[in-house]
Design a protein that fits this description.
mainly alpha; 15 helices; 2 strands; disordered C terminus; TM_Tm6sf1/2; TM6SF1-like
């Protein structure tokens, strides 16, 4: 509990650093911002390393979560200042640091990082210090931050801010590489639950889809999500199909916002999300897909972050009128986007809450010549 409290309180020292940089012109030069950024990250790491030497955490990811908690306060401050709620902290950074943080998509992204990710970090730090498992929450966070940073970095380069890249831009790659490394680490760790089930798993897997109404609904929702992904992906690819033109003009003109983030996000979902949605359909039809428990959680984290930033960005006051959702289509577009967001989350919840269909079935005594110790029903 002491380490958790220290991480929480120390994170707010970021406000003092921002205020100092905002009031001293010498600290506002592009390369100086990069140097200070690197120095702060190193100092924060050394601080947590030194204070935990007497009782070092069993998990090295503790330092990643503690470090990123510090940057969450910076992101939340950025979002609040760009929305005019506070002032005096980030004015210099928009001018000489990262001007694209003032775009609607980036503002909503910073809100997500400053609130949702911050809460996740504190929860995972608490689990680490209490010697408890956090693998599922960790995969959700990894999916969220990987999607966050991959869209953010690509959108900067591909959008109309590609010509305004400053030295501080390169710090973003740390926040892309670390969740990727963390995701690989978490995927390799043993699952929180056994992969093998007994009678309950055999009974669940003997039922056809027609007798599993919840799974049937989820399959239909996944097909609808796949259709929606294809449509918006083709719009992002400038398809000449009439359906794409109609959707772009009358429903989501935000997809063509020159800032670049919406288009990049749709392409990410088209090339990476679409195969996963199809794989989830397969996993709901084919018994024993043990990978469903991990990948549904990872993708749920990714989709909720992307859709939060996308929906919020399209509704944000800074989005110019030609790219906002038309009034006559507002509720239909909002409902479609919310349903698209909820579908992978429902699939992940289904897998986590009732995993028997997705387990391997243990052989019962008499079925094989396995020793009794290997024939026990793990359930």
């Amino acid at each position: 509990m002491l380490q958790l409290t220290l991480v929480f309180l120390f994170s707010f020292f970021a406000l003092g650093i921002l205020y100092t940089m905002n009031t001293i012109p010498e600290f506002q030069e592009p390369y100086v911002i990069l140097e200070i950024g690197v120095a702060v990250l190193v100092i924060v790491f050394l601080f947590y390393f030194l204070i935990t030497r007497g009782n070092p955490p069993k998990d090295a990811l503790f330092f990643v979560f503690a470090e990123f908690s510090f940057t969450c306060v910076i992101d939340l401050t950025s979002a609040l200042e760009h929305d005019g709620i506070i002032s005096g902290f980030m004015g210099f950074y928009e001018k000489t640091g990262e001007p694209y943080l003032g775009t609607p998509y980036a503002i909503m992204m910073c809100y997500w990082d400053g609130i949702a990710h911050f809460i996740m970090y504190l929860m995972m730090i608490s689990r680490i210090t209490d010697r408890k498992a956090y693998r599922t929450l960790g995969l959700f966070w990894a999916g969220s931050l990987c999607a966050n940073m991959s869209v953010f970095i690509t959108g900067i380069v591909a959008g109309n801010y590609g010509s305004e890249i400053r030295p501080a831009f390169w710090l973003n790659f740390l926040f892309l590489l670390m969740p990727i490394c963390a995701a690989i680490t978490l995927f390799r760790r043993p699952k929180d639950r056994p992969l093998i089930g007994g009678y309950n798993a055999q009974h669940a897997q003997s039922m056809k889809l027609i007798w599993r109404p919840l799974d049937l609904i989820l399959v239909l929702l996944l097909f609808a999500a796949m259709t929606f992904t294809i449509l918006r992906g083709l719009v992002a690819l400038d398809s000449p199909l009439e359906a794409c033109s109609i959707y772009l003009k009358h429903y989501e003109p935000y997809l063509k916002d020159p800032v670049g983030y919406p288009r990049v996000m749709m392409l990410h979902l088209f090339f990476y999300g679409l195969p996963l949605l199809g794989a989830f359909v397969y996993g709901l039809l084919k018994p024993g897909c043990t990978w469903m428990s991990d990948w549904t959680v990872f993708f749920a984290g990714a989709i909720i972050q992307c859709q939060w930033a996308h929906i919020g960005g399209s509704l944000h006051p800074r989005t110019t009128a030609p790219f906002r959702i038309p009034n006559d289509a507002f509720w239909s577009v909002l409902a479609a986007n919310l349903l698209y967001t909820v579908t992978p989350i429902l699939v992940a919840f289904r897998v986590q809450s009732n995993p028997y269909f997705f387990l391997k079935i243990a052989p019962f005594p008499g079925q094989t010549g396995l020793p009794n110790s290997e024939e026990k029903d793990t359930n």
